[in-house]
Amino acid sequence: MADITAPMSGKIFKVLVNVGDSVNEDDEVAILEAMKMEIPVVSPAAGTVKEVRVKEGDAVEADAVLIVLG
Predict the structure, then answer these.
(1) Domain containing 29: what range?
(2) Whole-angstrom Cα distance, residue 65 to residue 25?
(3) CATH number of residue 8's parent domain
(4) Which of 29, 48, 52, 61 sits in a 20 to 30 Å window from 11, CA-based?
């Protein structure tokens, strides 16, 4: 099981996956808005999305768990 975390503090601009989706390593799973830039959040490993802990518009801190892979 792997956690996908926020690379920095910001706001969730878009969530690109849903529970049950399969992702590969380096797939974009969300877009974080920080410092007026859109930063892609990528999966560190292949797996299936077990939990999405954020929604669009949520403010997150650096290293917050956004998505859990199984």
Answers:
(1) 2-69
(2) 17
(3) 2.40.50.100
(4) 48
